[in-house]
C-alpha cells in the first residue's frame, strides 16, 4: 500500500444502492476516498489494474466472476492491494475460504453501518478483521486456521471447472443446461458433479445445492 495520506478504495457490489450506501459511509472519513466502483466480477480485475487502489471492498455474490476467484486473480498481480469482503453470507467455512484466499477482512452487510470504518482501519493497519457478529471463539478459530493450524476447507480442493459447475448447479441449472452453457457434454458434467460431491462429502443433489448456496456459490439476488 502507498504511503499517501488518502486511502484509495474501489467498491465492488452488484447492487447500485448498496454501492451508494457504502460510498456514503466510507467518505465520512476525510482520509478515505472512493476512486471507482463496479457491479461486475470480471470488471473488478481490469479496474484494479487501471486504478491500482489501496483497498477493494468486495462482495462475494458477483455476476460473471465470484468474489473468491476475484480475490485469487487480484492477489496474483496486486499483492499490496488490501481486500475487505462485505457480504450477507454468515458462514464460518466461507469466512475461512476468503481469508485463506488472501482477503484481509470479512464484514457482514448487516454490520456495515456500524463496523465498516473500523474494519477498513484495521485492514489498513495490517490487521485481519472479522465481523463481530461471529463469536469470539469462532473468530479465534478462523484466524488460527488462516495460519494453517487447522484443516483446509474442502472447497479449496475443487478445480476451476468444478467451481464453475458448482456455481451453475447452485443456481438451479440441470446437467443438460450446464453442459450447454459450458460447451461440454452432459456425461462430462455428470463426471464433474460426482467428483464435486465426493470432495465436499455430500451424497445427493439436494445436499450439494444446500452446501453450495451456504458457501456463496449461488449468485442470488
Can you characterise this structure?
This protein is α/β, with parallel strands linked by helices. It folds into two domains: 7-146, Response regulator (Rossmann fold), CATH 3.40.50; 154-214, Winged helix-like DNA-binding domain superfamily/Winged helix DNA-binding domain (Arc Repressor Mutant, subunit A). The chain is 49% helix and 13% strand. It has helices spanning 16-26, 43-51, 67-77, 92-101, 112-124, 136-146, 160-170, 175-182, 186-200, 205-214, and strands at residues 7-12, 32-38, 55-58, 82-87, 105-108, 129-130. Strands 2-1-3-4-5-6 form a six-stranded parallel beta sheet, sandwiched between helices. α7 (160-170) crosses α9 and α8 crosses α9. The longest helix is centred in the C-terminal third of the chain and has 15 residues, at 186-200. The radius of gyration is 18 Å and the shape is globular. The mean pLDDT is 86.
Question: How would you describe this structure in keywords?
Answer:
single chain, 221 residues, alpha/beta, Rossmann fold, Arc Repressor Mutant, subunit A, 2 domains, 6-stranded parallel beta sheet, 10 helices, globular
Task: Please specify the SSE layout and strand pairing.
Blueprint (H helix, E strand, L loop, with lengths): L6 E6 L3 H11 L5 E7 L4 H9 L3 E4 L8 H11 L4 E6 L4 H10 L3 E4 L3 H13 L4 E2 L5 H11 L13 H11 L4 H8 L3 H15 L4 H10 L7
Parallel strand pairs: 1-2, 1-3, 3-4, 4-5, 5-6
Amino acid at each position: 500500500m502507498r504511503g499517501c495520506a488518502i486511502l484509495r478504495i474501489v467498491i465492488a457490489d452488484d447492487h447500485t444502492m448498496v454501492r451508494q450506501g457504502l460510498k456514503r459511509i466510507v467518505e465520512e472519513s476525510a482520509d478515505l476516498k472512493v476512486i471507482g466502483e463496479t457491479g461486475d466480477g470480471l470488471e473488478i480485475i481490469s479496474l484494479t489494474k487501471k486504478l491500482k487502489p489501496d483497498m477493494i471492498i468486495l462482495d462475494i455474490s458477483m455476476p460473471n466472476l465470484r468474489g473468491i476467484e476475484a480475490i485469487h486473480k487480484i492477489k496474483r498481480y496486486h499483492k499490496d492491494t488490501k481486500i475487505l469482503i462485505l457480504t450477507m453470507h454468515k458462514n464460518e467455512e466461507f469466512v475461512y475460504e476468503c481469508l485463506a484466499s488472501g482477503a484481509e477482512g470479512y464484514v457482514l452487510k448487516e454490520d456495515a453501518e456500524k463496523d465498516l470504518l473500523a474494519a477498513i482501519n484495521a485492514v489498513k493497519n495490517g490487521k485481519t478483521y472479522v465481523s463481530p457478529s461471529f463469536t469470539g471463539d469462532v473468530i479465534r478459530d478462523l484466524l488460527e486456521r488462516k495460519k494453517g493450524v487447522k484443516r483446509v476447507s474442502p472447497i479449496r480442493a475443487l478445480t476451476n471447472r468444478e467451481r464453475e459447475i458448482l456455481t451453475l448447479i447452485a443456481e438451479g441449472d440441470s446437467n443438460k443446461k450446464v453442459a450447454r452453457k459450458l460447451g461440454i457434454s452432459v456425461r462430462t458434467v455428470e463426471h464433474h458433479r460426482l467428483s464435486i460431491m465426493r470432495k465436499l462429502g455430500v451424497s445427493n443433489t439436494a445436499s450439494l445445492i444446500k452446501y453450495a448456496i451456504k458457501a456463496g456459490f449461488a449468485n442470488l439476488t
